[in-house]
Amino acid sequence: MDVIEKGSELCEIIQKWKRAGKRIGFVPTMGALHRGHIALIEKSVKQCDRTVCSVFVNPTQFNDPNDLENYPRDIDGDVDMLRKAGCDLVFFPGEREIYPNGREYTLNFDLGRLDGVMEGEFRPGHFRGVAQVVHRFLELIEPDAIYMGLKDFQQVVVVNKLIKDLGLKVDLVPVETVREADGLAMSSRNIRLSSEMRKRAPVIFQTLMDCSKWIKTHPVEEVREMALKQIRERGLEPEYFELAAPESLLPLNSGMVRDKVVACVAAKAGGVRLIDNLVIKQGVCYFAG
Ligand code: AMP
Question: Does ligand 1 have an atom closer than 6 angstroms to the CB of 163?
Fold first, then answer.
C-alpha cells in the first residue's frame, strides 16, 4: 500500500492506474479509523480495481475550534487497518495540498435548504466545508466511485446533490451504518466518551428504534418530544431529533403520508457530540393528530 502526502505523487499513481483502465474507488475519511470506515474500504475493494483512502481532518467543516482540536488522530493505526483491509493507497495530505490558496471558499455551490436543517442548522458552515473538501478530492483523484457512510445521512444527501448539480462523473455508493453490539453507531468520537457516557449512549439508537413504532400511533410532533425526553432522561443533551423526507431532508409534520422517512438525531454525551439516524420503511402512515 502506498502512503502518499503530496498531491503531485498521488496524481502520478492515479494517472498510471487510469491508463491501465483500472476502476478507482475512493473513501474520504478524517482518520481514527474503526470498523465503520473499514466497511467502506471493503466495499470499494470488492467493487473496484484500486481503492484510495484519504485521511484528512478538514478544518473548514468544523464550526467549533475545540472540536477540531480534540478530534482524535492515529495515522499509524489507520495505516495498519487500511493495509489489512486491502486498500491500495492512503492519501494523507497536509493542509496546503488541499487548500493551496488558503481556506477561502472558492466553489460557489448552493446547498439550498439542505444547509439550513439539522446538521446544517446546528453546525453553520459545516456542509460548505464538506462540499469544498469533497470537491477538491474528486478533482485530484477523479475516482469512478466514492463510498460514503449512511451514518452521516445528511452528508450523503449533500454530496449527492454536489455530484448531480456539477454533473460530475462519479458513482456515489452509500454504505450501511456499522454498530457496536449494543446499537451505538461506530464513530471516531466514541473513544472520547467517559465510561459512564459510553453506557448511556446506546439510548440514541434505542430511541430511533422506538420512534419507528411510535410513529405509527402518534403525531409527528409528539414523537419528536417523546424522543427528546427519552434521550434527556438518560443524561444526554439532544440538539435535535427530526423526522424528515429522505430525499429533501425537509422536516415532516403530522398528516403527511410517506412510505419512507428518516429519523435523525444529534446529542451530546458529556460534551461528545454524537449523531445517528434510522430510515423507517414500509407503508408508514402518520397519524393525523
Ligand atoms: P469520518 O472519518 O467521520 O469523516 O467518516 C468517513 C466516512 O466513514 C464517512 O462517509 C462516514 O459516514 C463513514 N462512517 C463513519 N462511521 C461509520 C459507521 N459507523 N458505519 C459506516 N460508515 C461510517
Answer: no
**Same domain? 134 vs 199:** no
Q: Are residues 209 and 169 in the same domain?
A: no
Q: Which domain holds residue 156?
A: 2-175
Q: Is the CB of 36 under 6 A from ligand 1?
A: yes
To test the pocket of ligand 1, the residue of 27, 152, 179 to mutate (highest count of ligand atoms within 8 Å of its CB) is 152
Is residue 183 included in any domain, yes or no? no
The answer to whether the CB of 277 is under 6 A from ligand 1 is no
Residue nearest ligand 1's atom 13 by CA:
149
Are 217 and 288 within 8 A, CB to CB? no
What CA–CA distance (Å, rounded) separates 29 from 209? 27
Q: Where are the beta strands (DSSP E) in 116-236?
A: 145-149, 171-175
**Ligand 1: centre distance to CA 149 (Å):** 5
- What is the Cα–Cα distance from 50 to 25, expressed in whole angstroms? 6
- At 165-207, the pLDDT tens digits run 999 999 999 999 999 999 999 999 999 999 999 999 999 999 9
- 0.85 cut: is pTM over it? yes
In a domain, 57, yes or no: yes
Q: Check residue 53 and report its DSSP letter.
A: E
b/e 230-266 (16+ beta carbons within 10 angstroms → b): bbeebebebbbbbbbebeebebbeeeeebeebbbbbb
